[in-house]
Amino acid sequence: MSTTDASTSVSYLDDLAPGQRFVGSMRLQVDAQRIKSFAAEFDPQPFHLDDDAARGTLFRGLAASGWHTAALTMRLLVGKDFPLAGGIVGAGFDELRWPLPVRPGDTLRVECEVLEVRPSKSRPEQGLLKLRTTTFNQHDQAVQISVGTLVVPRRGKGS
After folding, report:
1. 33, 98, 120, 123: least CB-packed within 10 angstroms?
2. CATH number at residue 68
3. How far apart are CA 54 and CA 45, in angstroms?
4. What's the total number of domains in the chain?
5. 3-state class of 56 per DSSP?
6. Which residue segment(s) compose the domain that 96 sits in?
C-alpha cells in the first residue's frame, strides 16, 4: 500500500507507518435505482426509497443509506489501490460518520491515512492497523469518515 506502487505489490504490517496516505484511483457512480434497491432490502425508510417523500425530509431529496455508503466504500477499498496482505479484515470501528448524504449522480472515491501500526504481542504473525478512511463525492466533499482497525499479517512471520 504505497502511494507510488500500490497496484503492483502487497503490503504487510511492517511496510506501513503512521502518516502514510493513500489515494484510491477507483470511482463509483451512484444512481437512484441502486439507492432504492439497497434501501428496499436493508434500510427501508422513505428518504431512501421515494423521491417525493424524501423532499419533505431533512435530506430534501433522495439520499443513500449510510450503510449503502459504507458498502460502496468497502468496494472502493477492495481492489488494486489498497492491496493488504490477507485482505481487508476489519476488527472494528472507533468512528463512523456521514457528514453529508450521498445523492443520485454522485461519484465516490476514497483516501486513507495510517494512524497507528501496532504489532501484536500475543500473535507475532500479525498486528493491528488503525486507518482513517474518508469517502469523497465528486465535489471533494466528505460523505463518510471512518476510523477503523484492521488485522494485517506481518512480513515473514508466518505469512
Report:
1. 33
2. 3.10.129.10
3. 9
4. 1
5. coil
6. 23-153
